Amino acid sequence: MLAHSLSESNTPRLVWRLLFLTLPLALTTLVGALDPDMAAFLGLAMSGGLAALSPIYAFPMILYGVALNNLTFIAGVHFGWMIIAGGTLGSLVHILLRREGVKFSILFLVMVISFMLLEINGGLLRGSVRLDRLFALAFLLVYLGLLTSMNLFHLLYGVFGDDPRKAFVYMVACVGVAVVASILTMLSSQEFSMARSGELGLSIGDTESSPRSLSNILGVVVVTSVMSAASLSAKPLDKMIWVSVAFASFMGMVYTGSRMPVASVGFGITLGLIAHVAFSGRSSRPINSLWFLIFLGFVYLLTESLLSMGPEVLPFIGSHVSELRLLRPPDIGSNVRFEMWGAYLAEVNYLKLIFGSGIGELGNPHSLYIGTLGAFGLIGLSLLSAFIVYFLIKAISNRSAVAVSIIAYTVLVLASSSDVDKSYFWVMMTIAIIFLRIDAEAMLTDPESQPLSRGVA
Questions:
Q1: Domain total in the chain
Q2: Which residue stretches of 204-235 are H helix?
Q3: Are 21 and 177 contacting, i.e. CB atoms less than 8 angstroms apart?
């Protein structure tokens, strides 16, 4: 059956195209293990060159940069933001070279303008404006606004000659493979180290930064890969590859030791599977769903058995590491986050509560929502909530279980980490938006096209 699937598909062409896009990831991963600063400049050049061809080509590099954002700092600029800058500049070059009319997502435009005005207002209240972080956020939103305004279905179809949904799943999956490879190679080169003695949890670089960025992106790769295998129409080999990538990415999350992303993965996949069953209705084929659940159960049991053996079975882990931080229950009673949030809400005045205090007022708020409230007030939090709700409604109306699961994962995982001017929320939401754009454009091209699986051909 697998041979038949390969013979009747454009898989060889898809593989070669994906190799073209993932070669920059592989080179950056290799160089990063040897010299992170050199990898940052290489990533900037690679993302800029790919985006000049088309912004969608640079998206895997952007996603990779976000995962390894804290790998190094150059002149105060993070590794990930250098790659984002390359993607944005390359996108502008693409528009100039192609002489196309500039199309920009109205929602991203509203967010850019609103956040700028709110930051200026917050700066007036405190006497200073964080232009560095404001322009970094604006740079990212400009790239994403240009990317999500393009006709992605025809672009991916023309390049890969296959189902654009499948092509994009592979693009996201390749990032998961690259990030896991980075974890292993940088453990061996000591760029990553153990954050706590006796417990498996990583810290990044000389600054011993949190590995949460790695976990956030690996988690979205797991959710995307599993839900694509569950709900999209694809060959058995494709689905096996996606679930295998999800397994590898989850094992990468075991190294990082971040617990909230793992819980969020379970939440996102569960909600996505419920949505898939609801969207499929009578068109679903129970036998296909049964086989997939059996395979998923096998992967789950394999993961459980590996975790039960402890960290000593994992590569590059010394004998001094005896526990998996992932399995340690959280201590909610003495959580510093709650104390910080309570102190801020107890002291903030009504003016700052409505309009915000500006970016960085809370330092590291450890929550997208508290960070948005602190930076841009209730107005900014309302805009962010409307942004999420709008695309969640679009995902439901498009019957896209993949988009529903990604949005659910993103909403939960960033409840205890990140800030509004960080890149995680925006790039993870963009994955869902791209799926929605592809589905909507596919429906215009072929009204019979649906994101739901019709079984294995």
A1: 1
A2: 212-231
A3: no
Q: Residue 94: left if φ>0, alpha if ψ -120 to 50, beta else—which one?
A: alpha
d(CA 54, CA 441): 18
Residue with tokens 């930076």: 375
Coil, strand or helix at 105: coil
Q: What is the pTM of this model?
A: 0.88
Residue closest to 437 by CA, chosen among 394, 382, 401: 394
Q: Does residue 99 sit within a domain? A: no
Q: How far is the C-alpha of 183 from the C-alpha of 181, rounded, in Å? A: 5
Residue 162 lies in a domain: yes
Q: Taking the CB of residue 134, how many other CB atoms lie within 10 A of it?
A: 23
Range of the domain at 430: 109-445
What gap in Å lies between CA 298 and CA 208, rounded to an integer? 36
Q: How many CB atoms lie within 10 A of CB 388?
A: 17
Residue with tokens 């528009």: 95
What 3-state DSSP class applies to 194? Answer: strand
What would the two tokens of residue 22 be?
Answer: 């993932």
Is 20 inside a domain boundary?
no
CA 163 to chain centre: 21
Among 148, 81, 136, smallest CA distance to 109 is for 148
Q: Are 180 and 71 in contact (CB under 8 A)?
A: no
pLDDT in tens, the chain (457 residues): 333 343 344 556 666 777 777 888 889 988 888 888 999 999 999 999 999 988 898 999 999 999 988 888 887 788 999 999 999 999 999 888 876 666 788 888 888 888 888 888 776 666 666 777 788 888 899 999 988 888 777 777 666 666 788 889 999 999 999 999 988 887 776 666 665 555 556 666 555 567 888 899 999 999 999 999 988 888 888 888 998 999 999 988 888 877 888 889 999 999 998 899 888 875 555 555 666 677 677 777 777 777 677 666 677 676 666 566 666 666 666 667 777 777 777 777 888 888 888 787 777 788 889 888 888 889 999 999 999 999 999 999 999 999 999 999 999 999 887 777 788 899 999 999 999 988 877 766 654 555 544 433 3
- Domain-embedded: residue 253: yes
How many other CB atoms sit within 10 Å of the CB of residue 12? 9
Could you tell me whether strands 199-204 and 323-324 are parallel, antiparallel, or unpaired per DSSP bridges? parallel
Q: What one-letter code names the amino acid at 239?
A: K
Those residues with Cβ within 8 angstroms of residue 350's Cβ, 6 or more apart along the chain or in another chain: none
